Amino acid sequence: MFEDLRSYLDHLKERDLLHEVNVEVDPVEEVPEILRHLMWKRYPKAVLFNKLKGYEDWRVVGNIFGSMELIKIALGTENLEEIGERFLAPFKGKAEGVTGKLRKLSEMIGMGKYLPKKVRKGAVQERELEPDLLSIPTFKTWPKDASRYFTYALTITKDPDTEVHNFGVYRIMVYSPRRAVVHWQVHKRGAQNYLKYKKKGIRKMPVAIAIGGDPATLLTGALPVPEGIDKYMFAGILKGSSVPVIELDNGLLAPANAEALLVGYVDTEELAWEGPFGDHTGYYTPRDLYPVFHLEKMYARKDPIYYGTVVGRPPMEDAYIGKATERIFLPLMKWLIPEIVDVNLPPEGLFHGIAIVSIKKKYPGHARKVMHSLWGLGQMSFTKMIIVVDEDVDVHDIGEVMYAIASTVDPKRDVVIIENDVTDVLDHTTPTPPIASKMGIDATRKWKEECGYEWPERTEPDPKLVELVKSRWESYGFPSEVKPE
């Protein structure tokens, strides 16, 4: 597996999956516009900008996770679900019920094979620089964004009670050379750690911000790892080996092979205005108050590479990251809720917006039971609409899903509305985030107990005629590619 961002890019170059731009470009506004256009066109290569106007010491890379092929290369697997199975392997068959299984997951903190490995000095410490956030080629992605933003930096914190580390991908608005505003939503683990420090009366909460790193660690930053599980350990599971880390003066562990590292603290008594920012919804999110990060030290490798992404109306790079999340965590969802067959979180549904789930239906009301179980699982609690279909419906074929809805759903009987429930803070459709309504649609074929009558029989061809037609297909003169399966 790849030890850092550079080795990953070298590998992509060998496979002709890296495009290098060697003319001078403005990284603040021109680069994000280039990347946005490429992502809309589903460009399948990572893009490295080697000459930056005003930032001669830096290079910028984007779209490194811009296709499922790139993500599979980054994680060294052809089957992303295998990673989820690896995660669950120690616990299969050991606990019954969702509560017991979730309790078992918390014990994964002790899995020594994947725990981070401390090293005395990391590549990221090649140089200590004058602390200056403005010296980094951060993006201003959309014209009305309030400022420049870190869009894919890893914000590192730890729980002050358990010392379990977390790093998340939160947008960070640059205010000045040494101040920035961290947009961590109230449901995120970074925000929960912040509230613990605040409750304890600790004004300076240790925070580090890593730029770049090995691709498995970078992807882990965006994954909804269950609460209580150390993200460095989960990154080790994705990577297949421990993540090398350095211990900072403020007690945090940071990726040893990052490209740059910003060390400082968040003041638990200081808030500042953040936004507007053009987000993944395709709309600007309005201003709000968030905690302030203070930069104290800054480290960087020689010739550092800044990794940033752009977000907006799908498809963007985060569409593929979201799809990878879906596949990696499908085994976990199936372990916790065994009747689940498959799940589709469509990028156009903004992931938290719509979930399509197929189940092995075993009793009346089963679809509703699955809806409520999913709404009780971590970030699935943000899902605004859940559509449940039978196991023979391909959840990734929207035509099949639409047919299932049209042929099984009576709106009054089969639509569930939940009021005053938790939702994504970024959901501008609700007037009162993070509280909103949700909808579930039972698009399964109904049992008599659910509808009061015998459900009609589905039309199916005569198996003998199917075999006859298949055996004689060549004699009909039709192309082989349309032969019945």
TrEMBL record:
Record's catalysed reaction(s): (2E)-3-methyl-5-phosphooxypent-2-enoate + H(+) = isopentenyl phosphate + CO2
Known EC number: 4.1.1.126
InterPro entries according to UniProt: UbiD (IPR002830), UbiD-like_C (IPR049381), UbiD-like_N (IPR049383), UbiD_Rift_dom (IPR048304)
Molecular function terms from GO: carboxy-lyase activity
Highest taxon in the source lineage: Archaea
Residue ranges constituting the 3-octaprenyl-4-hydroxybenzoate carboxy-lyase-like N-terminal domain according to the UniProt record: 9-86
GO cellular component terms listed in the entry, alphabetical order: cytoplasm
Domain 3-octaprenyl-4-hydroxybenzoate carboxy-lyase-like C-terminal intervals: 320-443
Cofactor requirements of the protein: prenylated FMN; Mn(2+)
Pathway(s) it belongs to: Isoprenoid biosynthesis; isopentenyl diphosphate biosynthesis via mevalonate pathway
Domain 3-octaprenyl-4-hydroxybenzoate carboxy-lyase-like Rift-related: 118-314
Family: Belongs to the UbiD family.
Main function: Catalyzes the conversion of trans-anhydromevalonate 5-phosphate (tAHMP) into isopentenyl phosphate. Involved in the archaeal mevalonate (MVA) pathway, which provides fundamental precursors for isoprenoid biosynthesis, such as isopentenyl diphosphate (IPP) and dimethylallyl diphosphate (DMAPP).
Protein name: Anhydromevalonate phosphate decarboxylase
